[in-house]
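Researcher: Quick sanity check before group meeting.
Model: Go ahead. Protein one:
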Amino acid sequence: MIKYIGSKRLLVPTLVAMVRECEGVERVIDLFSGTSRVGSALKQSGYRVWANDYAHYAHTIATCYVQADAARWEAPAQRLLDELSRLPPAAGWFTAQFCERARYVHPDNGARVDAIREHIATLDLEPELEAIALVALMEAADRVDSTTGVQMAYLKQWAKRAHKQLELRLPKLSSGTGRATRGDALDLARSGALEADLIYLDPPYNQHAYLGNYHVWESLVLWDKPELYGVANKRIDCKTRKSPFNSKRKIHAAMAEIIAHARAKWILVSFNNEGYISREEMVALLATRGEVEVVERPFERYVGAKIGIYSPAGEKVGRVSHTKNKEFVFKVRLAQ
């Protein structure tokens, strides 16, 4: 899967174990699915998973890892990837914007991305097959990118991996089916749709918006070739597609509304001590629905915190305050 700030890769075993401890759970909603690490792990553990996210790239990832059934799609997906891998490079919009004007991917690999993505756009693929192809392309580009893991900036010099040849690999699909949707979490809550045995919440938690951090993947998936701005060459809609969960002023009310509208036996919330809601405040919000249990784990901060703070000229200009966080998992059995 792609490099992702806030990834639950190391926390997945803990989360799956906590879900297993919850009685009567068959259906799970992963409301802010991101890279679908958690949703995919729960699907593999035998749960019926509905993965949702507002970002198009995240919805595509969920369609690949949660909705698609390996038994149905593995063979045709491999044939498609073999076909795409044989395409000759053809530099185009992606290369111009993200390899030359910005330097996220080396132009040699950018030309391959352009050729593959343009070809996918000409095919009338079923949603699952298209998602698998797009995720394979996204992950291939991620393996040869020249960033520290987010797309707010790129390295001054090409990373060593950027010179490796882009290689399409079949995503590790899992058997069975799930559901993937792209929707606003608050809209879903207000509509009464949040009904399952367990609802897992891993929302954005501070000012860092996922759309801004992964705008290249959003443009690659949408292939809408939007207006871009700034040194990072971000999509213009990064200025307008805002989430209340990235607002210190709005996040408490948004979280309270999600919790109030949840129709489930259990709620599981993943958050950390860099979030706009403190441990004590989260416990108070969740306690309106039932008794709260909290598990705390040490967690490494995003890799950029270890590298340091630099100016646009590449000069070190600041000191990182800390390199470790505390990750909290809150579990609530809702009062009936």
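Researcher: Fine. The other one?
Model: Protein two, sequence then structure:
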Amino acid sequence: MEKAVVLLSGGLDSATCLAIAKSEGFEVYPISFDYNQRHNIELESAKKIVEFFGVKKHTIIKTNMDAIGGSALTDNNIDVPEGVLNHNENDVPITYVPARNLIFLSHALALAEVIGAGHIYIGVNAVDYSGYPDCRPEFIEKFEALANVATKVTATEHKKIVIETPLQHLSKKEIILLAKKLNVPLELTRSCYAGKEKACGVCESCKLRLKGFKEAGLVDPIEYA
């Protein structure tokens, strides 16, 4: 089996990416991050999702992105705001974590090189998303080009790394329906930015999730405060 690294946060989109990679015949190697995020409860979800899918190896990288700050997800002095679903595409909310996907993909690239994986799956989206610059197609395109000159296997052995973004152009409704089709354990996923035991229901991530379930004609199986 070919191998694929899958970025797994514990949320709906990344869990769906894991299921897609498995359905496409890859031996999956999920990678998650403990970056001192406010909502690190998502890591427990990631572990449960890995167990559900019977994955053998789950890599968790510890890094202290709160030392940089600048985001409501890493700085406890910045409150998580109530979500706004209709915003200008150039408006980047305070929940954006500076360069997060660049950093995460770099770790995933290193893991891919070590295990001999030619594919990296990431659940970025450019339809129902928060406007983060590191979720946009142009970022992924540029990172893939960089990845293919950045490592020993790509620069000297001329192997290729493909950054897979199967959710890039799907609405949240479409992602949820796909997740149901692929038997993703939606009840184990966490999307809330607040980091409490129950999802807040009012942050942008919660609102996007609830909107998707409503449009899909389904009930979200997680608890909300």
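Researcher: One line on it for the slide.
Model: The helical segments are 12-23, 41-52, 100-115, 137-150, 152-155, 172-181, 204-216.
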